[in-house]
Structures are given as C-alpha cells and as structure tokens.
Amino acid sequence: MPTLILLDVSLSMCRPATNGNEHIDAVANGNEITRRQLAHHGLRAFFDYVADNFRLEFTSLVVFSSLWEEIVPFTRDYDLLKSRLSKAETYDKTCFVSAFEAARSVISDGWGPSTPFHVILVTDGSPGVGEGSLRQFLDSQEVITLPFTSKLHIICISPLEEVGSNLHWYKQLCDTTSSHGGHVYFPEKPLTQQSVEKAFMQLAENNYMPYKGILQFGNLRSNVNLVPPPINIMGYSSNNDCDFPPFPYELKICGFLDSVDVGQPPCIARHLVLPYSSSHNQDEPGALDASASDSSFDDAPVDDSHTPSFCVLLHGSLKVEKMIALVKLSDDWFGILQSWADSKKKSNLVLSIFEPAIKLSWLGELTQLGPSIDEDTNPYVAVNEDEEESPFPVALPGYFSYHHQGFFAWTKNSLQSDIQKTLRYARRLPDKKIAFYKEVNKLRRNALVYSYDDVIACIANLLLKEAEGATSQQAAALLKQVAAHLQSENVYSVIEPI
Fold first, then answer.
1. Which of 187, 203, 294, 483 gives the lowest tally of CB atoms within 10 Å of its CB?
2. Among residues 35, 32, 58, 33, which one has the least CA distance to residue 117?
3. What confidence category does residue 429 fall into, taking pLDDT thresholds of 50, 70 and 90?
C-alpha cells in the first residue's frame, strides 16, 4: 500500500527542540538541534524500516508550507528519499490547505481513487495562524477530504504537554479528511533523537507489519511472505457487509484446477507470494504472526539458497501446466494461487482472495470440490489420448429465459462509428434514403435494448441540426420527420420513410 509523506518545512519547524534552561545548556555545549532535524532523523529511521520490511511498496515525499512541492515522486529507492530530505528549503508558515491539496493532486494524478493509501503528516505541533491554519481549515465550509481510501497518521515533533489543547484539532483532522481516520503520535519528553525515532517506530509497527506465514500442501511446506500484508487490506474492508474472519497463519492447498475452467473470478484482494529465509526469526519486531503456536519448521536456521523451495516449485509448475491451486483460508473462505505475468519475461506467484462464502456458479460449491480420484467415475472424460473433456462449467439446474450463448457488446468505438455512419447518410439525402433509415433504426433499436434514452435524444438533436443546413427541402423534411419520431412516444416502433 503506497505511502505519501507530507513534511512541514515552515519556519516553526526550525525552532530548537529544547526550551528554557535546557536550551541555554544545549547552546553552551554546542548540541543545539532543531525540530526539523529531529523530523529528518525520524524519517530516516522510518525509511530504513520500510526498506527492510516493505521494499516493494512505493513512497513519495512532499514538502509544504504556504505552497507545496513534490521533491521525490513515488519510488522504491529509499536512499534517494533520505538524501533529498536535507535538500528541502525552508519556507514561511504552516498551511494545512496546501498540504491536503498536494495529497489530493499527487495521488489522484498518479494512482487514482481505487488504491488505498497511508498519508503521514509530519509537523511541529503548531496549528498555524491566519489563513490556512488548522482551526481555520477545519472551520471552513470547504474542508479538503482525500477522494480515495486512506488513513492519516500525524506525527508532531513536540511532546503531548506542549501540544495541549491543539490535540483535539489534530484528531478532528484525522476524522474529517481521511476515509478511515488515523492516529496522532507524540515523542516522549525530553525531545531527543531517541524519543522521536521511537514515535516513528510506533507508527511503523502499528501499520507496516509484514505478514509471514506457511504455504502447505500435504507434507510440502514453505515459509512465505504476502505483499501487501492481508491485514491491511482487510482493515480497509470495514465498509463491506462481509464479516472477515482472522487471516490464517497456514495457507493450505486443497487441490488444483485448470486455469481455463476457473477463469478470473471476482476477488477482494491480490497479494504477491514470496518465499523468505527461514533464518529470520518470526519473533523479530514488526513480524505479523497470525498464530500464537510455534512450529519446529522455523526453529533451525538454514541457508535457503541451497535448499529446495516448495514455493518456487509450485510457481514453476502452475506456470508450465497452466493450472491454479485452490487455497482454503477458513471453513467457507477460499482463494486461488496462480502464475501472474505482467510481461512475457517475468511472472509472479499471486494469491487472489475471494469474499467469504462466495458462490461461483461455473465451479459449483467450493466446499464440495475434491480429488477426482475419489469419485466412482472420472469426471474428466477422455476424448482421445491427449485430450480430456472438463466437467466445468457445472450445469445449472433448469433453464433461464435470459440465458443465451451469444452476447452483443456496444462499445464506445462501435457506438461512435454507428453515429458517424448515420450522419454521413443524412448529409447525402435523398440519394441515400434507404441506407439512412436502416442505420437510424439500427441505432434506435440498440439504444432501446440498453436503455440509452440519452443517446436517442442526442441523435434527434444532431438530425435537427443537419436539417437546418440541408441542401434540399426534401432532405430537411426527412431529417425532421425522423427526429420527431425519435422524440415522440412512438420511438419503440420502426421508422418508415415518407
């Protein structure tokens, strides 16, 4: 899940981290440090954590004051992000309007509204003054809400005691601007590099926990990592009516099906399945373990580069045989493993997760699927030595009146070409009278089938405009007659030439 960093570069971020006697002592000892420097230190620690645990995720860095600037577009190069931190200039004042205008513009242009996002706002805890301040931004009639699924995290480079009553405004900011709220983080007193880094690590461990589990098929098993973690995707499904059970630690393969038989059923999430080294202890900070039970499979550290991997074997087999693996996640919750290729050169093992208790009519009840060898008669009927007839799709009970083998798709290009063809015949009336009426009736019939009433009205208006510039009175009369018929209640009847 991509991350957008909004870094406050106003003058208030240049305030010293210490106050009073502590500030005097720091100046005397040459240890004076600003809040912006503390923010840079915390962000570098955060980038190191994400690089170790979420290397495949994209992160962008935007600085804001009264204006905003994207200094690093979305990238996986975390060394570049750390190097550009210190190159950002200091500007005038904190303006929250520009911050959220930046978030909306950068994400909407690059990703669109369907991608869930983490938005991290780093500021010094000052609400700002005048136009664009936090209070004025929340009290305004046009609060900028992020038009995509998002969670807002705010890190104030100030202790909670210093923020004081402004905490209420920051919490309201999380609830108002993002679709799934957020949280406000504060470093502990005294304000040091260690306390700020701890606040950033608290944010990372709460929202950037990698999923590490086991992929199992009989006695074959492999340590796997799902990217992005399913815990994040499930957290963003709270608006769905489905009640998702806890995501399992063990992904158990039930069996295999041909890719042609399965097709592309609807899914709620897709995740890359990557093998990871078993020498990494699952109790390390940030590791998401969905099961409290220990497994002897992960006890002894081994060199995985010299050990056969079931995950790699499965990926290669599914790709060559053009099959999918059915994975059981819970009692009535399934997913499929398949080889997914973005290009001809590279493919990945992908887990597609279905909604719980999903009904796929062409496969029947997923809970009733089993090995074909257990059946009294083999459901795969042999056509010849090299070909078998699949039992899928499952025959539906009864006959539906709307069932038909063929279908008609009226796409954007075909609609445009039909209208252009009709207008060409309209300009050549009365010579193309028969062809014109044939095309108009075809357009009328298709528009009625798809309930495109607006298309019929637009065609009538186009024909009236053509009638105004018609070269003959007969052509104008024909065009007006057809337009009047399309605008009347008799639109369902065939238009006959006059």
1. 294
2. 58
3. confident
